[in-house]
Every structure is written in C-alpha cells, then in structure tokens.
Amino acid sequence: MNAGMDQPASEDRATARMNGNQTPSDMDGSPWCPGHDRQWELNRRNFEGRWCGESRWYLREGDAELDLSRPSRLIQDTCYDIRFSDDDHGEWDGSGLLFAPEGRRLLPLSRSTYNRGGQCWQFEAAGGQSSLLIDPQEPRWGHEINLFTGRSRSMLVLLWGRRDSPAAPRWRLDAVGAVAFRCSHTAPPDPPRPDPGGAMALLESQAGWTGFQESLVPGEWPIDPPAPQPCEPFDPKAFLRHPLTAAFADGLVCSVPEWLPQEAFCLEVGCRLAPDRFDQLSMQIDAAGRLACWQRRRFRAGG
Question: Which segments of 116-209 are extended strands (E)?
Fold first, then answer.
C-alpha cells in the first residue's frame, strides 16, 4: 500500500514496488519477523487517508534524453483512497494511475500478508517500497519514497530500465514521478508549498541545519522505536552525490545516477516539508547490487 508504481501485480515486480500500491504477493518477510506488527502499524499510521493530487511524470522516450525540467505527462486527478475496516484489514483504492488498466486498481490489505517480500519499509512519517536487488532477470529496478507532515504526503518514484548488452545488462533512469498529495479528509487541505527555486537553491539554503538519523536494514524490523542519533549538519555537497540532481513539486529533490553504477552507491531523496524542516532518505546499495539499508535524516533550522 505504499510503493509500487500504480500497477502492483502485472507491469513487473520492480514497477510494482514504487508508488503507493503493494499487493499481498509483493510483500514478504513479515508475519514471522518480530518487528512486523510495528511495520504494519506504521504503514497504517502513515498512509491511511484519501490522498489526492496531480501526478507529474517525467518519462524517457526510447533512448532520448530524460527531461526533468518539465513533465511529459500530467494526471490531475490521481487519488489513493487507503482505508481500514479494523486493526488487521483494509483496502487500497487507486484512480488516476499511469500504469494500471483504465487508470484504476482496487487491492485488499491485510496484516497477515503485509510485506511478504520485504520491499516495504516504514519510519515515523516516512515510508515506501524498494527493489532489494539489481536483478539481471528483471526489466526494472526502482524505489518509491513518501515523506509526510500533517496531512501532506510528498511522493517521488524512481524507475530504471534494463538495457541489454553483450557484456552485461545495465540500467538507465527511465521514469520519475512526483506527486504533492493532500488528504481530502482534512478541511481545508494543507496548502501548496512555494517553489524553492531549483535544487541548488533549496539545498544551499539549508546548509548547516542540524538533525538526527535512524536506519532500517531489509528484513530487520525493530520491535520498538529506535532512538534517533545525532547526525552531521546538513551539507549540500554530501547530498549532491550524482550529476543528475533535480527538484520537483512540493519541495521534493533527489540526486541519483542516470546509469546504475557497477560498484556500491547511494541514492539521495529529500523534501522541504516546511520552511524550517528538511527530511532526507538515503538508500545505500552495496557492491553486489543489494540494498543494504534505508537511512532517514530529519534536519531543522536552528537545531
């Protein structure tokens, strides 16, 4: 229910783990893991609501350049209605979806089947889904990140497509999706955020902000909330790991590779959730192409 593109079961497994719609068959490592119940409860706490917004998709056409300066596809009425009938069951009802047949999909949610594949992850006020391995058998590799404040949900989807070659397949960034969701159950809805003026302006304006960090390792879900640890003050240069750095709607920003490296690397995604708050989500990939951990940092102006 939190990450997948918007076609969880059929487009392909990697696409399914990125944009607000996990299915029971997409989620593993759960009922037998001690921290499973807490992940399910965080999932409900984060995602319950009727989330509506304009989807902005930046799509590569063939081998042309991927233009991140303006979207190639707008879907104005995207809505994820995520509701629960009791503590253990719910429903994910999506419309205005890019990859689902006729733009709609309805999925059951259940504590007993949640996160069987281990791709879903939850912090307080942050959650998503991730491909756990760069698998040469899969046509896509990707991530969905959702960062929350109040009744706002800022979502970024990143999808790399496989390119076959005589030596070994490689993966190129093919699609980016950004949505400034607001929960329609709240009246009035949270207001739009001002344009930060581009990625560099956003990042440089928060240099030196102090913060705390916490981490999750795939399949190792803590039973109790881990104590956040102090982290280094925000440094724009540390965020700018890759030449491809761009800002999107709602204060979202990322620094990611166009081509996935063949050595260890890190993806950086963040969002200016308020004038004095920036949340950052880092995904560390090891040299074998496995996702080693998710790390969330929360920075504040003035400490």
Answer: 120-123, 126-130, 140-149, 152-163, 170-183
